[in-house]
Amino acid sequence: MDMKPFMNIVIAMDEKNAIGYENNTPWGSLPTDHNWYLTHSTTLKDPLKRVAVITGRVTFEPIIKLGEEYLSKWHFIVISKQTQEELHRKFEDLDRNNVDIVNSFEQATHRAKFLLDTPSAMIESVFLFGGVNPYEQALELKLVKRVYLTRIFAEVPNCDARVSKFDLSDFQRVKRPPGEVLAELDDQIIEENGWKYQFQVYDRQDS
Ligand SMILES: NC(=O)c1ccc[n+]([C@@H]2O[C@H](COP(=O)([O-])OP(=O)(O)OC[C@H]3O[C@@H](n4cnc5c(N)ncnc54)[C@H](OP(=O)(O)O)[C@@H]3O)[C@@H](O)[C@H]2O)c1
Known about the structure:
CATH architecture: 3-Layer(aba) Sandwich
Largest sheet: 9 strands, mixed
CATH class: Alpha Beta
Order of helices and strands: EEHEHHEHEHEHEEEEE
CATH superfamily: Dihydrofolate Reductase, subunit A
Low-confidence stretches: none
Distance between the termini: 16 Å
Bound molecules: NADP nicotinamide-adenine-dinucleotide phosphate
Number of domains: 1
Helix content: 10-25%
């Protein structure tokens, strides 16, 4: 896929790259991390625009239960092998104008790039929310320009979703200048609900 890096990843992983267990995160609720991912993926320079969010179908399902204050900022590109009709029936409360259903990661990527490059689509940026296969493909295809990584300092006992290929060798860890959204949390170590974790930001070196 011949495209310049254009998307941001937001991801929380343990020390062995575990991300999920029984359709949740293995560490349950971490309020500061929750705020970190929602704030980054909803902060817009132009409040009339939206963020395009690429997500696998499983990751999408709990996200749509978030309130309108978040949903109104996002345009979803949901990856699923199911048909558009099946999924629109399942998520019938959602505004079809703000949810695209696609059948592959490649289609998701093309749709996101098209929206980003089309001024009338009013898309300001693109975030990838997961899960495993979309994360792995985005990195392998070198489509990622920034990674917002929450590193959990633990090896969780239970995990059924783990990213096996997560190579950040093309990236440099950065500490953002003050003034960028939540920059004061870069490198911060947080202790919450019995878990210790750190916010890390990585930028692609050649982007
Ligand atoms: N820690 C974190 O930062 C983080 C982030 C995201 C998710 N999670 C966790 O990870 C788990 C979910 O991740 P997951 O990897 O299991 O699921 P996922 O990628 O969110 O969803 C899997 C489903 O998405 C569709 N899909 C994904 N990639 C596809 C592809 N390349 N082509 C076609 N369809 C594709 C398929 O949908 P159909 O079955 O409809 O065909 C597949 O069954 C949950 O436990 C969630 O809480 C954690």
